Each structure stands twice: as C-alpha cells, then as structure tokens.
Amino acid sequence: MNVRDRQAENTKNAILKVATEMFLSQGYQATSTRKIAQELNITQPNMYHYYKNKKVLYIKAIEYAVDGFSENLLDEYNQQKNLPFEELLNYMAKYMIENFRINYFIMRNDIENFFTPEEKKDISKNWDGGYYKVLFNIFQSHKNELRTDLAIPVQVGTFLTMLLPYIEYNDAKRKRNIANLNTVINIFINGVKKE
After folding, report:
1. What number of other Cβ atoms are within 10 A of residue 58's Cβ?
2. pLDDT single digits (tens) 20-37
3. Distance of CA 109 to the CA centre of its chain
C-alpha cells in the first residue's frame, strides 16, 4: 500500500471513528455530517468521497461499533463460559454494560424513523449477529437448567429486552445500572412470585 492509499485509509477510519462516537451518543438526527467533518478538520465533500451520504455513514458506524464489541464479547465469553449460569449471565451482562457505549433508545428511534425497511434489515442483521450469538450460547449451554416450555430464542430475546435499557452512553448511568444488575438478573431468573 503506497503513502496515498494509506492516508486515504487513515482518513476513512478516522471519519468512521468520529461518526460512530457522535451517532451512538447523540443519535442520527442530532449528528450532522458537517459536525463530523469539522471535528476532523476536513470538508464535507471530502467525507462524502469515502461515505456516499449520512445514512451510509450511520450504517457503517453501527457495523463498526457492533463488530468490534462482538469480537471482544465472544473472547470474554470463551474465557468465562464455565461459570454457573446465573454468575455467567451476571458477568456477561456487566461486561456489556461496561463496554458497549450506546444510547440504545435513541438508536432504535432513529432506525425506525429515518431508514427504509431494507436498511433496517441490514442494520438488524449486523446488530443481531454479534451479541445475540454470545447470549444464545450461554442459554444453549445451560438449557438443562432452564424451562423447556420457552424456546431458547424467546428466553434470549426476553433477557435482551430487559438488559438493553441498562446499556447507556453516559458513564454515571452505566455505573448506577451495574449496581442494580444482580437484582435484575435474579428477578429475571427467579421471578418475583413466592414458590
């Protein structure tokens, strides 16, 4: 790779990194491509040379964030997979909250309101391919301890629905959420009703 190609690759990666941080913290609508370009001291036309438009950049930013996180999450799972079910679920949920910085509700709103069904499908495929697989493995490897009247995808989906509000961009909120995590997972596993 020559110097010019390396510079182009560095610029493309820098754009993606800044865009990811802005999109995940502020959302699609609140982040302008002008702000991204200004942050990097480049022009908008230069940015559009690498990413055709804001939607393409947003989709690539989500892909970039999820891919990097998913690899780390899988590595972490492989190191901890022999823990008992509740302990493993606690550990992995805490890892997700500590390491995946995103404003999930803003992201879901953005995807629902600004993207076509085809674009939504692309984003969801990437999103589900990473963290969902790891959680599915956790539930699958402990299926003999779990209810048989609920399919594992239903159990994983329910757990994710419960966990996603705890994944925040804001550091203070993430710390508060981690403090409450054991209780939430205990309720998820054991319910609130007396036996």
Report:
1. 26
2. 999 988 999 999 999 999
3. 15
